[in-house]
Amino acid sequence: MPWIQGYPYYLLMGSVLSLYMGVSSYRHRKLAGRRYLWILMLLVSLIFVATAGEIMSLSFQSKLWWKNVQQAPLFFSALFTYAVVKEYVSPSTGRLPVKLAIFSIPIVMDVLLIFTDSYHHLMRSEVAVLTVAGVSGIAVKPTLLSMAFIAYDQLFGLYAVCLLAVSLLNTPRVYLRTNLLLLAGLLVPVISVFLLPLLKITITGFTAFTYLPAIIAAYFALFVSSKLTIFPLTKNKILEHMKDGVVLTDRYDNIIGINDAATAILYDITGIANDNWMGKNIDLFMKSHEDIAAHYSQRTEGQFEVVCSGAGELCYGVSLIATEHATTENKGMLIVFSDHSEKKRYERELVYQATVDDLTGLYNRRHFMQRVQNQTIPDGLGLALLLFDIDDFKLINDTYGHLAGDQALVDFSNKILQVYQNKGIAGRVGGEEFAVCFFAEDKCAALKEAENFRTMMSDYTIILNEQDSIHLTASIGISFTERREVTFEDLYREADEALYHSKNTGKNRVTLGREPIIRETVKG
């Protein structure tokens, strides 16, 4: 094979290429997602150099020494492949250096045992010189202990590939091609670990070449791609055009970064007209919001809402985000303010539509029933339910029209609200039927309350126009109980029967119903 004759040359060229990319990457090592890539490239460069040294050495001892030298960068390259991917895909890697230090302990032990294997033979059962296609190198037969260390190391490469593959599910479309390139490159060294033995490729140093696609793909994905270089150059412009307010504080709680949106929002919340919040203490905001301040002081993340007092009905979401995930509390925080005002107004409108009768402003039947059912009768009191029915309401519609009927319903509802808004629950439970629930000392008190309302309505006249007016009267049915186990249905049934009696015995009167009977559901 003619190409094999220049094999050491290819190895050295691979080393130079890896070294060049490593040195070039070193300049950008402080950028997010790029802190460990330069180390991985230097490790690959060392693998190439050590492999070339092994092949070019003439003596067995020299070849073995270079073989041992290969092991440190070879094993650490898998660990730093994991580090590169972990930092690239994860939003929080504050504890990654500590994890890497812990994970490297078995690797250091492995390398030390390899270098001292000639004394204890724990790592290699056989060592010999093997020549394949004119290339001579050291061939070893690993022990079970050595294979355990190898398996441990390979797990990092597999995990890195899995991390990157899973991250593709949430990758924005603009970054998908770049991430696929990175994944394809990483797959080469990981898969080759399993394929080389199956393909019976035993040429010394071939493993080093499998790392080239990975580091080249990573280099172009993280440093050459123009899409990813936008972050450090346009961070301030992005922040200034964000609708959300962004505040960054330091370990002393001083504001070290803020955009215009945050300045306006802080004015809405605090009332402090401060155009230059930079350098101010965030306590100006926190002192009025103890729940947020408690999380902030502990440097714990959380989601909160702040409602601004006043006619504007402003509501802001507040997100606390730790800038570094570490055990110490002496770290800065990122505070993001989002305007929830429109969302809250929409939610209130939905709740209103679901619970309130749009014509009268009283609770609708379903919500009224829920509110009554949730009432707990206090000791010494009872629960009274009054059902009102406007007398001869159909005659009003037939005589004056439906608009007059609507006006009668609205005026009647206003009278109910005027009397019971602060001492009971009022609702519209039918076309011209209304209900009020309140606590009373006894049946006599409930009856007196109903009679007072009936009398008030008897004296009330609705003016439709200069010629027409309506005189309203109401029939009322009452049910009363002091027992907490009585359901709304039981209470309503007796009040409805009492109301029916009032309407059939002359109208414009009050009838007190019987004590509600608790009806058990028969299970078949």
From TrEMBL:
Transmembrane stretches, start-end: 6-24, 36-60, 96-115, 127-150, 180-199, 211-233
One of the record's GO molecular function terms? diguanylate cyclase activity
Renumbered to this chain, the signal peptide range is: none
GO CC terms: plasma membrane
A Pfam family this chain is assigned to: HisKA_7TM
Positions of the GGDEF domain: 381-515
User: Which Gene Ontology BP terms does the record give?
Assistant: cell adhesion involved in single-species biofilm formation; negative regulation of bacterial-type flagellum-dependent cell motility
- Taxonomic superkingdom: Bacteria
For this UniProt record, give its keywords in alphabetical order, as a comma-separated list. Membrane, Transmembrane, Transmembrane helix
Q: Which SMART domains match?
A: GGDEF
Q: Which PANTHER family match?
A: DIGUANYLATE CYCLASE DGCM-RELATED, REGULATORY COMPONENTS OF SENSORY TRANSDUCTION SYSTEM
Protein's UniProt name:
GGDEF domain-containing protein
Q: Which organism is it from?
A: Paenibacillus odorifer
